[in-house]
Amino acid sequence: MEQARSTGNIVYDADIVAGIGNQNMTYLAGYLLLQTIDGSKHTFSIPKKAYSDTANVAGRPVPLDLKGTIDWTEHALEELEGVYEECLETNWDGYGAMPISRETYSEARKLLRMVPSSLPRPDISAEPDGEITFEWYREKYSVFVISVGGNNLITYAGLLGKSNKIHGTEYFADELPEIIRHCIRRLSP
């Protein structure tokens, strides 16, 4: 019986993974076991050919229902907190960046909670001017970025096709502005 094996950052029990017998499941099992082992966040990539909308059950392909929605909000809020904690001090990037203020962090949390989980999850980062940025990227000509700075304004810019550019500023109070919701929706698969 083979013991636990390590491949790069992934540690898994070879007998469990071998028993799965499907390359897609091998990647998934490695990822899930990695999360169980140390509980930390890791990037994980699956080769493009590994994606499928069918499963192999008893030697026959079976269609999978992939139409459900996964609520990513809590994970995104944890990511936001990590960005905030990393950028609390002046010069956090080594190039004179402004710190993220408590107001900016609070506004970013509020905004993140307003994005419906049926829409794609954004990438979250900090900007040198002290703002927090949310980015939705689908492909080369499909990207939308918004930022908040604790002043009840959302600044946005997007490329929604080769020649369809959009940018502006919207007041942000009690609900996500419709233009922001519309642009994010346009990037949904």
List the helices and strands and how they pair.
Layout (H helix, E strand, L loop, with lengths): L3 E4 L2 E4 H7 L2 H16 L15 E4 L2 E4 L9 H14 L15 H13 L8 E4 L5 E8 L2 E7 L4 E8 L4 E7 L6 H9 L3
Antiparallel strand pairs: 1-2, 3-4, 5-6, 6-7, 7-8, 8-9
Helix pairs in contact: 1-2, 3-4
Brief account:
The protein has 189 residues and is of the alpha+beta class. The chain has 5 helices and 9 strands, in the order E-E-H-H-E-E-H-H-E-E-E-E-E-H.
**Proportion in helices:** 25-40%
| Residue share in β-strands | 25-35%
**Main sheet properties:** 5 strands, antiparallel
- Whole-angstrom Rg: 20 Å
Query: How many E-type strands?
Result: 9
Output mean pLDDT.
Answer: 76
Strand order of the largest sheet: 5-6-7-8-9
Helix and strand element order: EEHHEEHHEEEEEH
Give me the number of helical elements. Answer: 5
Keywords:
189 residues, alpha+beta, five-stranded antiparallel sheet, two-stranded antiparallel ribbon, 5 helices, globular, disordered N terminus
